Amino acid sequence: MDERCYEIARQKHICPHCKEELSCCRTPPYHVGDGLGWGTEIFFICLNDECKIFNGSWDEFEERYGHSASCRYMLLPNETKGGPMMVGSKVAFTGFIIDPDELDQSNERYQKEKEAVAQLASCVAEKNLSPVIRLIIDEEANLEARNRACDLLAELNDLDCIDPIRGHEFRHTEIGQKANIAISTILKNHNRKECEFCAEIIKAQAKICKECGKEVG
Q1: Could you give the 3-state DSSP secondary structure of residue 208?
Q2: Which one of 68, 110, 120, 186 has the fewest beta carbons within 10 angstroms of its own beta carbon?
Q3: Which of 135, 146, 142, 150 is nearest to 181 (CA)?
Q4: Is residue 52 part of a domain?
């Protein structure tokens, strides 16, 4: 979630029908309406089951349309007036509520990502591995920034990158492949290899691993 959405999500809005505070929710992947999408990542909705617009719409939908449905009051960001939105059950949209603690954690992660991206331009000259590693192993980070970090990894030529990358489980397999290719280049540059048994970094010409004592190829 970007900073704009973070600030919007911190806003407080009141339902005009029941005077309860609206819940901030992520917009679902589907859109009921004209098919043009939501136009926003988040919105506000009244999830009070005692709200009169919610309680009073079930019979109307049944009589008019012949199926079970109701309405909840919803408000889009930067709008002063909201309106009713059809829902098919009491639990509709409850799975999209944004948890405040989760929001703070997400914003903290985003701020660290921004800081890391800003440091990429000078990281090679400063021999600063930290921003590169942060972006490579952050599965939520911008994909373009992660790819750039992988490209810079080989230029940094630092063996300290191996443990955090090898210890990370990549959801984005392409990033994992690029990072591992860079590690292979770094090992070659340092005349090193990894023990196939214990993953210890040893000299390329070594026949016996100094860590596990096993014979290596």
Answers
A1: strand
A2: 68
A3: 150
A4: yes
pLDDT in tens, 114-140: 999 999 999 999 999 999 999 999 998
Geometric angle at alpha carbon 188, from 167 and 211, rounded to 5°: 55
The domain in which residue 36 lies consists of 3-96
Arithmetic mean of pLDDT, 97-110: 82
- Please say if the pLDDT value at position 188 is more than 70: yes
Average of per-residue pLDDT across 24-50: 76
Number of domains observed in the structure of the chain: 2
Looking at residue 99, the DSSP 8-state letter turns out to be P
> DSSP assignment of 17-56, as one string?
TT-PBPEEEEPPSS-SSSSS--SSSEEEE---TT-HHHHT
Burial class (CB in 10 A: 0-12, 13-18, 19+), 178: buried
Does residue 12 sit in the same domain as residue 83?
yes
Residue 49 CA to residue 71 CA, distance in Å, equals 11
Select from 96, 123, 143 the last residue of a domain: 96
Residue 6 token pair: 């973070």
End-to-end CA distance of the chain: 47
**CA 122, CA 207: separation in Å to the nearest integer?**
39
Query: Are 56 and 122 members of one domain?
Result: no
Distance separating alpha carbons of residues 182 and 57, to the nearest angstrom: 60
Q: How many Cα atoms sit within 13 Å of 1 on the Cβ side?
A: 23
What CA dihedral angle connects 147, 152, 157 and 163, to 10 degrees? -40
Q: Confirm whether 175 is domain-assigned.
A: yes
